[in-house]
Design a protein that fits this description.
single chain; 236 residues; alpha+beta; Phosphorylase Kinase, domain 1; D-amino Acid Aminotransferase, Chain A, domain 1; seven-stranded antiparallel sheet; five-stranded antiparallel sheet; 6 helices; 14 strands; 30% helix; 32% strand; binds thymidine-5'-phosphate; binds aspartic acid
């Protein structure tokens, strides 16, 4: 499968067309941004780690019945995925308080919830991805009621599968962000990526942060954290 024209360049990935109108190639970059792109940097090796980890996790999810955009990994940084139109919702699941949840509600990080939470943000950088509920999404015509129900149910299934998988690696899945897409025939599939860019991972013993928060918060040890997650997943 060969890339043809570039269709899109995002903050962390590029998307290319292929000869097949139903497939695109995603190319993962080492570029990192935070705070709506205000903070910019490079995390050496991140593109390959995120590509490989995301593909591996999507294959685990497929086996559990979660439809994803994954088709075939081409090389360390590039993957063939189904062409979808992205539903402009960032779907965030939380198991433990952290980040904007802790800030918004004035609580410390690390409170383990009895039940996971779900929230949506409108995926719009100009508006700084405002929080929205499913009624707002319906009102704005972002998705139908059925699509929103499907997305919620898929997101909770992803959480159950991944929480169990990561605890087996000595990692707490604190929270994560998912994006969903619609294929040409209208099927909702899990899209984008699942990686240390989009998840909070804490070591189960020490609560050491093993994700992009080290970059967001200028904590140092960013590359080592990504490598440690690669090691836990692939033993490399
Ligand atoms: P938050 O606590 O900042 O709202 O982040 C919740 C989760 O979503 C966390 O795992 C990081 C992820 N996330 C993204 O993947 N992209 C984003 O733009 C933001 C703000 C969060
Ligand atoms: N990716 C987002 C940005 O560039 C933020 C984040 O992941 O914290 O703004």
């Amino acid at each position: 499968m060969e890339k043809t024209v570039q269709l899109y360049e995002g903050k962390a990935k590029k998307v290319f067309a292929t000869e097949n109108p139903e497939l695109v190639i995603v190319s993962y970059k080492d570029d990192a941004t935070a705070l709506d792109g205000l903070k910019k940097g490079t995390i050496v090796g991140k593109g390959a780690i995120n590509n490989r980890m995301s593909n591996y996790l999507m294959q685990i999810l497929e086996k559990k019945g979660v439809k994803t955009h994954f088709v075939e990994e081409l090389n360390d940084n590039e993957t063939v995925v189904k062409k979808v139109s992205i539903v402009p919702l960032e779907v965030i699941i939380r198991n433990i308080s952290a980040g904007s949840f802790a800030k918004r509600f004035g609580v410390e990080e690390g409170i383990v919830f009895a039940e996971p939470t779900i929230e949506f943000s409108y995926k719009n950088d100009d508006l700084h991805d405002p929080l929205m509920n499913s009624y707002h999404a319906l009102a704005l015509g972002i998705a139908t009621k059925e699509e929103i129900d499907t997305i919620k149910s898929m997101a909770f299934t992803v959480n159950e599968v991944l929480k169990e998988y990561f605890i087996g690696l000595g990692v707490k899945l604190v929270d994560f962000k998912l994006e969903f897409g619609k294929t040409a025939d209208g099927t909702i599939v899990l899209a984008d990526e699942i990686s240390p860019d989009t998840c909070r991972f804490w070591d189960a013993e020490t609560n050491e942060k093993l994700d992009k928060d080290r970059f967001r918060r200028d904590m140092g040890g960013v590359e080592d954290a990504y490598k440690e997650m690669m090691h836990r997943v692939f033993g490399e």
